[in-house]
Amino acid sequence: MGVAKPRYTKEELARVGDGIYEREIEARVGPANPGKFVAIDAGTGAYEVDRDELVAMNRLLARLPDAQVWLRRVGSRCAHRIGNRYKRRA
User: Do residues 47 and 38 touch, judged by C-beta distance below 8 A?
Assistant: First the structure.
């Protein structure tokens, strides 16, 4: 069995995944799940929510083995941040 070729480039995956999250998922999961991870299949819009990103992704991949997964954190524009927060000087 070979490795499946991704259907989306990284940029397309980000655009499609964010669009699905903002249009279809955010209002459903946001109020009750702040800080949790949402694993989204960019091809179908299917998703899983969990405190642990690997649990969310593994549940989604168990249902959809060929999923191309985009990860978001509820209440944030991204799943992770690298480095310190930028503090604006007055």
Answer: yes
Q: What is the pLDDT along the chain (90 residues), one digit of tens a residue?
A: 445 677 889 999 999 999 999 999 999 998 889 989 999 999 999 999 999 999 999 999 999 999 999 999 998 766 765 555 555 555
Quote the tokens at residue 51. Answer: 């405190």
The secondary element (H helix, E strand) that includes residue 70 is strand 69-73
Domain ranges in the chain are 10-73
Residue 77, token pair as written in the block: 């524009």
Give 21's DSSP letter: I
